[in-house]
Amino acid sequence: MSGTPETSLPSTLHQALAALLGPSGLLTDTTDTAAFCTDWRALYHGRCAAVLRPASTEECAKAVALCHAHGVPMVPQGGNTSMVGGATPDDSGRAVVISTTRMKRVHSIDHADLTMTVDAGVTLKAAQDAAAAEGLFLPLSISSEGSADIGGVLATNAGGNNTVRYGNARELALGLEAVLPDGNVLNLMRRLRKDNTGYALRQLLIGAEGTLGIITRAVIQLQPAPRARETALCAVDSAAGALELFSAFRKQDPAAVVAFEFMSGTSMALVNRFIEGAGLPLSEPAPAYALVELSSPRAGDGLRSLMEDVLGEALESGLVSDAVLAESETQRNALWMLREEHAEAQKRAGASVKNDVSVPLAAIPTLITEATAACEALIPGIRVAPFGHIGDGNIHFNLVQPEQMDAAAFSARDHDIMDTVAEIVRRLGGSFSAEHGVGQLKTYMMPSWRGGAELESMRRIKNALDPQGLMNPGKIFPAA
Ligand code: FAD
Ligand code: MLT
Ligand code: ZN
């Protein structure tokens, strides 16, 4: 049985969109649109008047112009992996979701410039694979890369596992094309490494979470493929121990460290419990773990001896109590799986509250100690399961519901928990959202964190480009 549209588009708009996009580009049946109206975490259940799936920039621009002319709100969506409800429409049913999932062309790979030109709807994994097929490397890596799209990772300025060496998505984008809220196309595909001609508009679109326009194409910087790689999982006694180890590697060769990830004993235990095939390759569970990866474009670059020297010393001094080095690509994948399945394991463990925070590196141990005590005092039995990109100062200070607590009752405390952690983060000079963005989940935090001239400037920019407030309403900005 097929569902029915819960709200209809104005009929003139419906007809024009149907003529423009064809049957596979316009979905109005609720059985087809439902998946676009719920987020990965199932925190939000919105409704939409339709899902538009343009296949090109031109189609996207025309569709946006039509929606703009009819005053219809638009929600850009890529792989729909947002952790903050950024791509989910509200429940009014007025908005259309504009999905880039049919814009899937890898246009070109340039070996002289070390760049690739891709459509927004190419998944990050497909872009990585296309680069690898030409002996190159796209150095952005996140656990959701099989679903997340280039447009989505740029719109959220995604970080991930290689940020410590290569920076966030922002640092990797050399060019951008976007459809503005009125349907005009902003072509910034110049792909120049040097270009000081006025405002850096592409950087404005990156990280704007779809509130200023729809990214349709991008030029992404690549690297030569790594020819040497060493990966190790290390048992440490705490986040402070992990940081000391990070510093030991960086002192030897900062350029060699491409990833340095932290996992608490609690978060690793959830992976071992909930993910099939996961197993700890160490003699016994530890209070905490660090996953370190070194790489180089030069074969035989001495990475193995660098890894062995640093770990040898750390084992001798007791900084590391046990460690395992990957001896093959299969073993490397098995080590990375333990890290990459953290989000999925926590999802299976019940309701959770995510605090995607960053603080200066030296403040991480204090953050973990103080936030653990505060959360345990707030909700006895809460499972404190921090992990994340410790080399970037970015900890996912995630909390999982107590075993016996009702999931809804735990979720109802989300603001108490987020505020408790956020106040500690604020005192330590950090940010309440290091990489997931604000979305709709954290809009309420914006006035106290980014208030005054900062939020007012953001509002003015938003009003200048989108005076009707049609592009991704309800995201980033708290309701007036
Ligand atoms: P969506 O979820 O579809 O959208 C995200 C936001 O971008 C929304 O505001 C949406 O409106 C907007 N948007 C989407 N496409 C466009 C476009 N073409 N133009 C303009 N706006 C657009 N994030 C990290 O930074 N680091 C991580 O390590 C990380 N790990 C993750 C692991 C898992 C398992 C999951 C589920 C998520 C993770 N995320 C991480 C969060 C998420 O932000 C990223 O997966 C990714 O950046 C979102 O891409 P997407 O295509 O799914 O975007
Ligand atoms: C990750 O790094 O795996 C995700 O960003 C984290 C999360 O689940 O909070
Ligand atoms: Zn992350």
Automatic annotation (TrEMBL):
Reply yes or no: does the keyword Flavoprotein apply.
yes
**All residue ranges annotated as the FAD-binding PCMH-type domain in the record:** 44-225
Molecular functions per Gene Ontology = catalytic activity; FAD binding
Domain of life where this protein originates: Bacteria
Q: Which PROSITE patterns match?
A: FAD_PCMH
Q: Which cofactor does it need?
A: FAD
Cite the SUPFAM superfamilies for this sequence.
Answer: FAD-binding/transporter-associated domain-like (SSF56176), FAD-linked oxidases, C-terminal domain (SSF55103)
Q: What Pfam family is a match for this entry?
A: FAD-oxidase_C
Q: Which InterPro entries match?
A: FAD-bd_oxidored_4_C, FAD-bd_PCMH, FAD-bd_PCMH-like_sf, FAD-bd_PCMH_sub1, FAD-bd_PCMH_sub2, FAD-linked_Oxase-like_C, FAD-oxidored/transferase_4, Oxid_FAD_bind_N
Q: Name one GO biological process term.
A: respiratory electron transport chain
The keyword Nucleotide-binding belongs to this UniProt entry's keyword annotation: no
Gene3D superfamilies named among the record's database cross-references: 3.30.465.10, 3.30.70.2190, 3.30.70.2740, Uridine Diphospho-n-acetylenolpyruvylglucosamine Reductase, domain 2, Vanillyl-alcohol Oxidase, Chain A, domain 4
> What protein is this chain from?
D-2-hydroxyacid dehydrogenase
- Tell me the organism: Acetobacter peroxydans
Top-level taxonomy: Bacteria, Pseudomonadati, Pseudomonadota, Alphaproteobacteria, Acetobacterales
